[in-house]
Amino acid sequence: MLQIYCPHCREYREEEEFHVAGQAHITRPENPDACSDEEWGRYLFFRSNPKGLHHELWMHAAGCRKYFNVTRDTVTYVIHESYKIGERPEVTAS
User: Fold this and answer.
1) pTM summary value
2) Tens digit of pLDDT for each residue in 15-31?
3) Are 58 and 4 contacting, i.e. CB atoms less than 8 angstroms apart?
């Protein structure tokens, strides 16, 4: 069982209290009406699935119900950091 740090509650909680919501740092198109179907489909459906470090969006569903980002290794499941949305990750792939 993973212990995940919620940067809003400022405490570690059991993994069961959280839900992963996909890849973090996805930028919404500035003008969706001007996007082609291909561009809009790429934004909605295509995500990175790297082997190694990955930035993910999580929600503390059984706690504060706020979203935050997690840097996790997809091979070892080790969580390197948790940080609020809008903050920059300190741990990045080289």
Assistant:
1) 0.87
2) 999 999 999 999 899 99
3) yes
